[in-house]
Amino acid sequence: MTLTRHWIVGPGALGRLIALRLAGTAEVTLIARRTLPAEQTLITPEHAALVRRVDVAHIEALPSPPPDVMHLTTKAHGAEAAHAALAGHLPEGVPLVLWQNGFACQPRLSERHAGPALCASTTEGAHVQDDARVTHAGHGHTFLGSLDGRHGELAARLAETLASAGLPAEAVDDIRLRLWRKLAVNAAINPLVARFGIRNGELRDAAFRTRVEALLAELAPILAAEGIAPPDGEGIAGWRRLVWQVIEATAANRASMLQDVQAGRLTEHEAILAPLLSAAEQHGLAAPDLADHLTALRARADALAQPGGGC
């Protein structure tokens, strides 16, 4: 199977980053629910402007022929609806790549998709400037693999394709572990920066440092009960080292959840916090701070859903 034709479903920051990087070496179509300019500009981390033309198609008027691989880059809460709208138009066996944060839709879509399903865990950073411009805020790394441990050759080939386009990637056989690790980091950072409207680096201030530590104290036993170890060290010390390293490395960043709040969009609170709280309940562990953040973000989502609430 070739990996020449790529559909990117969900033209937000990450989707357009992947599309514009791949467009130099592959046939790329952005699948959207609204009209976007075909000429797109990517501002690189080195502050260069990379201008490329990509095909743009409406989700209800899909192009032909079908893709060799479909990348689903919508937010987690929109992933299953987007897949349902597209799955019937794909030949059986077309690979699906899930780029969502958290650990909510990935197991369900991996079982539902009629073909290989890979999950991606990435630290690439990007944010949208406007309909024709996206900024690649910082170089990162992407891990690819399937939850059932299959399709290693496909993951390796796709990783090579991404790497050759300027997005370093590698195939792994432990993608569930890597998704949970990213989930833990997101849970310690995103709810705080979203609720208080701060950049990641401000979590180092005394007023917020104690809040991060309180979340780490809840996260560590939940992750231990799930058999998820930090990449360096053991227990809470390992998670503390990882989270603070990420905060330092991304100090100037506006986390994705903060970007969503500032843009009046729904956040990925359910995909990030709900799996952790479900695991806590299953293992009989208390997580009042995580629950408080989820309650607050759910209340915001309910307000957005009201007439005149935006979003």
How would you describe the overall organization of this protein?
- By secondary structure, this protein is α/β, with parallel strands linked by helices.
- 45% of the residues lie in helices and 18% in strands.
- The chain has 10 helices and 12 strands.
- Residues 174-291 form the Ketopantoate reductase C-terminal domain.
- Belongs to the ketopantoate reductase family.
- GO terms for molecular function: 2-dehydropantoate 2-reductase activity.
- InterPro entries: 6-PGluconate_DH-like_C_sf (IPR008927), 6PGD_dom2 (IPR013328), ApbA (IPR003710), Ketopantoate_reductase (IPR050838), KPA_reductase (IPR013752), KPR_N (IPR013332), NAD(P)-bd_dom_sf (IPR036291).
Considering the chains and any ligands shown, give keywords for the structure:
6-PGluconate_DH-like_C_sf; 10 helices; pantothenate biosynthesis; KPA_reductase; 311 residues; 4-stranded mixed sheet; N-(1-d-carboxylethyl)-l-norvaline Dehydrogenase, domain 2; 12 strands; Rossmann fold; alpha/beta
SSE layout and pairing:
Elements: E1 5-9, H1 13-22, E2 27-32, E3 39-43, E4 49-53, E5 55-58, E6 69-72, H2 76-87, E7 96-98, H3 105-112, E8 117-122, E9 125-130, E10 133-138, E11 142-145, H4 152-164, E12 169-171, H5 175-196, H6 206-225, H7 235-249, H8 256-262, H9 269-282, H10 288-305
Parallel strand pairs: 1-2, 1-6, 2-5, 3-10, 6-7, 7-8, 11-12
Antiparallel strand pairs: 3-4, 8-11, 9-10
Helix pairs in contact: 5-6, 5-7, 5-8, 5-9, 5-10, 6-7, 9-10
